[in-house]
Amino acid sequence: MTDRGSSRKHADIRGGAKTHTLWMLALLWLSGSCDSAPSSQPEADLPAPFPELEERSKPGGPKAHLQRIDIYGTQRHNTAGARVVLTFEGAPLFRQKQMSPEGVLPARIAIELVDTDWGESVPVSQAVGRGGVERVRLATPNPRVVIDLQRDAKGRVFYLTDPYRIVIDVSAHGARLTRKRRPVVVLDPGHGGDEPGAANDEYDLVEAKVALEISKLTADRIRAIMPRARVFLTREDDTGLSLEARCALANAMEADVFASIHLNAGSEDVRKGGVTTFVLDTTNNRQALRLAARENGTRVAEVSGIQTLLARLHRRGQTNESLRLARKIQRTTLSRGRVVLPRLADRGVRRSMFYVLVGARMPAVLVEASFLTYEPEARALTTRYYRRALADGIASGIASYLRSR
Questions:
Q1: pTM
Q2: What is the mean pLDDT of residues 180-201?
Q3: Which of 130, 156, 174 is the last residue before a domain boundary?
Q4: Which of 1, 17, 151, 358 is deepest in the core (most CB within 10 A)?
């Protein structure tokens, strides 16, 4: 992550004393409440939580294999959190336990695995010492992964599929620091590396490259509007970055805003392009589900099957703040974009299940700034004038939100 201002589309999301047993589509959480709604209208109140999945108590299916353990968001000494991601071949039956300190043992989270093994390439122990995580280690004879926590740290556990991953999000000191400080904005240029995202060969447009340029222009504009703001980009060049790492970096930096910037595309002829700003929430909108599946690099069935669970990681207050941020970005991006394209369509603020937003502890949005496959917008996107207009709009929306807090 690069600090600008004091300063791809696909990827995976990588990296209590009660025990909950979950089979494959299990979601475990240690904090937050569940608030979601199928409506695409941002003004609507969020209804009551969805019912719990029925637990399976008996193991079944083929044996799973733990392929690797990734740890994200721990590069800085004073990082506010860390994300530990366990990636599997197959889907394990697992239990999670949160244990209080006992003698010389610190507080810890144990992921107990059933019918699961691992190879020699998986480290037996990894010292971390930051972000609320002291160490990540393997334990036997009952196979389990143990996360030793630092003092006052807390964690929550959830799963992702395709491939199957168990994600442990740890927050250092148990809560966000309340000291007065310069606002922090994390901008996430979608895609990169081996995941170029959408493309328009006729106009030589590649989403990863366009999103990166718009993100850099947005960062520069925020610096001009709010000189005190610290602006970070999750990537500064055409390198790949997992979805898990993007959100983990924002959490570790205690960001005030997280905005993932993308360009839209259609598999068929697009009769109307436009700008859309998304927040994490459930939806029954078929188009939103297809878009989320494309952004997540998975199938629509995977998105619709787990979205009601993953959205529970969002608290009501956080969802409302994300909606408020999204409305401001949507309004200002349209306003600036229409200086170049007067008929730029308003696709509104919508709800969808984008993995890159899952686990964010700050207001978080995903912006689809324009359509690469809608001819008027594709032509405009070849010009720096239009890209700068979109960046000015995104920056103005973020600045407006930060000033109104």
A1: 0.75
A2: 93
A3: 174
A4: 358
